[in-house]
Structures are given as C-alpha cells and as structure tokens.
Amino acid sequence: MFARAAWGPGTLRASPSTLLPPTSHLPSCLVPGSRNAPSAFTKRQWNLVCGDGWKVWLEQVSHLLGWLLGCVVLGAGCDRFGCRAVFVASLVLTTGLGASEALAASFPTLLVLRLLHGGTLTGALLALYLARLELCDPPHRLAFSVGAGLFSVVGTLLLPGLAALVQDWCLLQGLGALMSGLLLLFWGFPALFPESPCWLLATGQVARARKILWRFAEASGVDPEDSSLEENSLATELAVLSAGSPQPRYHSPLGLLRTRVTWRNGLILGFSSLVGGGIRASFRRSLAPQVPTFYLLYFLEAGLEAAALVFLLLTADRCGRRPVLLLGTMATALASLLLLAGAQYLPGWTVLSLSVLGLLASQAVSALSSLFAAEVFPTVIRGAGLGLVLGAGFLGQAASPLDTLHGRRGFFLQEVVFASLAVLTLLCVLLLPESRSRGLPQSLQDADRLHRSLLLRGFPRQDQRPLLLPSDSCCAGHTPEQH
Fold first, then answer.
1. Residues 6+ apart with CB under 8 A from 375
2. Would you state the pLDDT for residue 130?
3. CB contact at 8 A, 95 and 177
4. pLDDT of residue 222
5. Which of 258, 335, 416, 433 is the most exposed place for a label (fewest CB within 10 A)?
C-alpha cells in the first residue's frame, strides 16, 4: 500500500515526501523542519519545501530507479529460482529496508535505502503477479489481474488518510515494514503460496511439479491415485517426463535475441509501457491548473486508474487484447497531440476533458501492456520479459521528476518525444499477435508460433470471386479443375 505498481504501473506515492503539496495546504506538523514538527524532523533538519524542494523529486527518481532495477534483476531471478523463492526473499529484504528507512540519519542514506527498498518491493509484486497469472486458466486471467489492480487502487486511496492520521513519516515507514512482515507470515508457507507448476514443468523439475499437482488434486477432493482415464494420463505423462532424472533447464534472458517473433513483441510492448508511464506527466501538467487542490488531483488520478481497470475488464476479453491496446494508444496519442498543439487556445473544459481522457487511456495502456507481455512471453523467461516491459514503464515515469530537477526547461521537448512515440507505437501494435483465450506459451518455440492475425476477423483472407467465369475458362481451352 505504501509503494505500489498497478500492473499497469501507476505513479508511485511511496513516502510522505511524495505526498507533500505546497506548505500552505499542509498542517505545520507535516512540514519537516517547521517549529511544530515532531522531534525527529527537528533533529534531522530535512526541509523539503521552498529551496530544498528538489529533494522530493530526487527521492522520487531514486525510488523509481529502484523499481526499474528490481524489475530487471528480480524478474530474471523468478526464471532462475522460482516465484515463491523471490517472493519470500524480497519480503524479508523489504521488511528490513522499510524499518531502516524509518531510522535513516541522513538524506543520502535515505536515498540509498529508497533505491534498494523499491527494488526489493518490485520483486515481491512481480513474483506475485507471475504466480497468479500462471495458476489461472485463460478465461479468468484478466479478471484476477484487474482484481489485484483494484486492491492496489484501494491502497492508494487509503494512504493519504493514514498519513494524515499518523503525522510522522518515521512511524508511517515503520507501519509499512510491519505490514510487509505480516505478509511474510501469512504467505511464506508453501501451502499458501506454492511454486508455479507451469514453471516447474517448463524447466524440467517434474518431481516438484508432481507434488504440487497432487496437493492441488487432494485439496479439490480428487483422488490422485484414481484409475480414471484423465488422472492416469496425467500420471503417465509425468512419469515419462521424469524418467532418467533430468536436470533442470534454465534459460537466460539473452535467449530472446535468438527468437524470430518474441523479441519483436516484447519491444513493441516495452514501447507502449514506456509511453503509458511517461506521457502522464504532460496530462497532469495540463490538468493541474483545472484542479484547485493537490489532493483532489491525487484522488482523481487514482479514480481514473480504477476506471481504466474496469474498462479493461469489460472490453479486453470481449474485443481482444490487441484492439483494446490499439484503441488506448490511439486515444493517448490523440489527446496528447491536441493538448500539445492547442492547449493555449482551447477552452478550459476542453483541456480538462482531454487531460482526463489522456490519463485514463495511458493507465489502460500501461495495465494492458503488462498483461499482454505476460501472455506472449514463454514460461521459461516470462519473469525477465515482463520485468523489462515493466521497467520501461518506470523509466517513463522517472522522466517527469528528472525534468523537474532541471527546472522544467525540457518539458516541451519531453511532451513532443512522448507524443511521437505514442504515434509510432500506434503503428507497431498492429504487428502484435492476439493472446485472448490462449494458453500460456511454455518454450521459446511456442512463443515464436504466436504470429500476427487479422485485426478484424470478419474480413475474408482473399477475394473469393474467380478471375474468369466457368464458361469463359472453357472457351479459353481450360477446364475448371485446372484453375
């Protein structure tokens, strides 16, 4: 709840410093360095307003870079050690680092801890996302992913109230560490968070997969030793796979470079995630003058994220992943170009509508890009592939605080770059395959078989009308069979 990524990633609000509006809107007890601030603030003299406001943006950049590094490194760790091992290890480190942040004695120390904390927290959320996806059947993958995203939005909405209630960032960080520890107690047991049988079978760990599948069968009230045909075929297949005690087969993320189609799909989805995460800053900038208070913008963005997830739930299974991603990218690019070209000449209600539409569409693009990437990458490197796509989204989000550190001198250029990338992504989305209602690919060869299909299935593949009528072909000395 204290640091999150909506799968689609959202703006991180992971510390009270990122929640600080101008001092006129804050109680004095919430402004570090003020006379009525708690003693912890007085001792450390961390002034985060006025001339020292750049520290807030630097802390945001540090935390976002931590999420980026965690996506890349721990995503590959999920492919090598399994989701459950990465989840438990990440929660242990997250609990320790969260408690250390509450005791940080200097601002540089806090920056380093925020970097590491963001990386370890990413590992836990990424492992949970992969395990949930691989345990779901195709008709329920979207529903469970959207449900998890809505829980994340609830945490976002509760965070300002908790911060106002606690009024001490040290205590707030301590509460975050305590909640991570509670998650470790409840989810650290194998029966509550089993390893993914899909990953175990794909990497050749048949014995471990057999134990987990048998446990699932017993929990469902099915006797694994039953002599029915289905159970016998499963037991026979597992016995054949485990013959000779084969060694586990792990794959490096560099294996993507040897694929024909999968690397291209990952590159396109990485671009869409980058655009979805980075272009939001321009919409927030256009929306800020229309919103009277900081917290209203905060709650509006969280509400739009929930609306984007509900929109995906209603459309992504009905229409398909690729058409909905194409629609979201088109709306994002159109809203960005209109605001870029005519924000100074448009009436206020038009700017407000375009900004809301752009935020809604960009959040839908980010969330759908994550789900799409998890469905097109094979099981053997799904963690690394999804980590790269999510990392691109966090890189886009880091562009906004980086530009703020330079006094927003390059903000117009940043808007132009992301608007151009949105148009480019709009063309590239047409090259993606459709993953709706399909099983997850297991190997690199399976993922390479996911080719691009027709966008509109109602169109015929070719013209069914013959070039010559049968009578004309006979007059030309040919028989219909020769055609």
1. 133, 141, 321, 435, 438, 440
2. 94
3. yes
4. 66
5. 258
| Backbone CA torsion sign across 326, 327, 332, 334 | positive
The residue to which tokens 């003020």 are assigned: 34
Tokens of 343: 């924000």
- Identify whether the C-beta of residue 167 lies closer than 8 Å to the C-beta of residue 30: yes
Length of the chain (residues): 483
CB-based contact 63:118 (threshold 8 Å): yes
Amino acid at 45: Q
Which pLDDT value is given to residue 237? 60
Rg (the chain; Cα; Å): 26
Contacts of residue 397, Cβ cutoff 8 Å, sequence gap at least 6: 9, 11, 12, 64, 277, 278, 280
Q: How far apart are CA 112 and CA 122, in angstroms?
A: 16
Q: Which residues of the chain have pLDDT under 50?
A: 1-43, 227, 229, 231, 458-483
For residues 376 and 325, the answer to whether their CB atoms sit within 8 Å is: no
Our CA angle for 320, 390, 20, nearest 5°, is 115
* 249 contacts 369 by C-beta, under 8 angstroms: no
Q: How many CB atoms lie within 10 A of CB 246?
A: 11
**How far lies 232's CA from each of 23, 53, 237, 464, in Å?**
69, 66, 8, 47
Structure tokens, 147: 């449900």
Q: State the Cα–Cα distance between residues 333 and 111, nearest whole angstrom.
A: 34
**Cβ–Cβ under 8 Å, residues 340 and 251:** no
Nearest to 322 by CA among 366, 278, 369, 360: 369
Structure tokens at 254: 């560099």
Among 55, 179, 152, 146, residue whose Cα is nearest residue 108: 55
- Provide the H-helix boundaries in 167-261: 169-187, 197-202, 206-219, 229-241
